[in-house]
């Protein structure tokens, strides 16, 4: 007699593998950049865009991917996102020059942006509300594992094989995952008509703001292209908000933000990404630039930071069910603030690695305690039919926070220090990490003021009735 694997298990496998692959690609390229520079004869700007093209397209298209899934079917769009990501990975591996590599990375980001938010909504569609903490905890641990292993895998493959294989590894994983999707149940949100105007305004507005932030450090914050991106993007986003208030089928029902819980949850998500990932960006460079470790050695030494979420994320999911998601969220943010503050205190050109480890552990444990409760609160504060839109909004704001954090803390770093000497690098990094710790402390305070989330199907349905029909983007 054949034993059938329960549908929720197929969904969990598909969501976990996909989120691991997409999370890993956020960081896997960082330790390969010096080799890519030599092999493809790339300049500094080319290397920056090898990283930023992925982050940029990922941030811009997250809302689009989530809304398309709600409208046309989450499993269907998840499959499309996975195929796009896999094919773009192969294109990146085959890139003959830096321009093709950047283009392939941008397409990778689009595929990841379609797939990533749908992993959460597919899970939510098969897991009862009272067990979502555990399910999201496992999801967060898998995402954390991708982040943890990204620098190590990238460094090892580049050092002992070739840089192309950091992209080739995605291809067999993507191909093996496709048959699993036949066991995933299709689901949809309550999407109504399309909102092409809102889609264009949001996409171009986010692109302008992120483009300006990404290029500000190198080209100057008062340069024409940066100011055009920031001001033009800001104007387009303002126009987007005005349009959404009038649109018959809005891309983002702004009524979601009338909920104090939803608004605060997304504010906390943006602040966390701003403070933490801006600090990670500089901390990883410190190990190589000041202490002279190779890419693989630096990746291994950051494991106490990046691997801690693998241990703490499942606990966060379990304790979120028992103690409340907002308490676990506030604890996670407080630990992150303490870890980044610790780094700012002990950092020096001659600091022993052992003195950095407690700070890495605190920051990493806090990250693990953050992702499961923030995912649960995002879903719980949204009506059932808008959960895909809510998940996409939260992920987009976190990505935007990451880009803003890297750009802003990079500006602090450049104004106070720089690459001229080890001491100059430490001076700039210390100042930037104090800012990061302060932002995380503010996020902790906001988390303490989150209302208790108590979501029932009846309440969700009632809330949904009070909001206009959401859209699926064109």
Structure description:
The protein has 19 helices and no strands. By secondary structure, it is mostly helical. The chain has two domains: 7-194 and 249-465, Growth Hormone, Chain: A (Up-down Bundle), CATH 1.20.1250; 195-248. The longest helix has 30 residues, at 260-289. The protein is globular, with a radius of gyration of 21 Å. The model is unreliable at 1-5 and 455-474 (pLDDT under 50).
Write a concise synopsis of the structure shown.
This protein is an all-alpha fold and 474 residues long.
Stated plainly, the CATH topology of the largest domain is called Growth Hormone, Chain: A
Structural class category: mainly alpha
Q: Give the count of structural domains.
A: 2
Beta-strand segment tally: 0
Outline: globular
Low confidence ranges: 1-5, 455-474
The overall average pLDDT, rounded, is 78
List the total number of helices.
19
Summarize the biggest pleated sheet.
none
Report the CATH superfamily of the largest domain: MFS general substrate transporter like domains
CATH hierarchy, class of the largest domain: Mainly Alpha
